[in-house]
Amino acid sequence: MFQWLKTKRIERIVKRSPITDSQWQEGFHRLSLLQRLSESEKSRLQQLAILFLYYKSLEGAGSLEVSTGMRVVIALQACLPVLNLGLDWYDGWRSVIIYPGAFSKQSIEVDDCGVVHQGRSNLSGESWQRGPVILSWDDSLPACQADGRNVVIHEFAHKLDMLNGRANGLPSLHKGMSVQQWSDVFNSAYEDFQLHLQQHQPRPIDSYAATSPAEFFAVFSEVFFEDPAIIKKYYPDVYTLLVQFYRQDPCKN
Predict the structure, then answer these.
(1) Torsions phi, psi of 151, nearest 5?
(2) Distance (Å, rounded) from C-alpha 5 to C-alpha 22?
């Protein structure tokens, strides 16, 4: 009975969405990474994105006005990782804050000698545990051709990673998946990735992945959806685990 009520509520939300089918189709057209999806998958993704926009608040920072087109583009990308997982994986937080471009953040670090270093850095995205996702709109539109980078997927991969605590590159795994296997495969790939950078023989993947296991997972999630053949070629074991985790196999489409 409760599932029936939930289904009816979802149907009502989707039916009452103020966004037209033509606006959704324009969003799909703008995002080349969605072209591999079947019509059935696109339909499910659109429904997820409608629910995402219903339950989440997309807010412009400063004087930025968030248009319907912006909402559609961000929602479609945000929901792609959970296409076969469900929107429940984004529970526990509500807001997406959108800046017009890169935004500044003050950083404080303490070195091994106890000296405090302060500085500012420009970011294209950020995710807070139990807090908002922050995005730069300029960086939220992928390139016309896949280049392996996607700030929206990157930040929402962090959200998936944070569902079981602080981001550390080990999200909540599905029943039947081995934590030990995940750790062994990802640690080995992480070390190999760093080694190739040190030897000036980088893989065709953003070097930011080498900064921490959490960033490694987020960057590899970007590539998995944007240009999956790269991961399958250089890190096939990682690719297999990402297929199991996201329950999608983008190289088959």
Answers:
(1) -65, -30
(2) 29
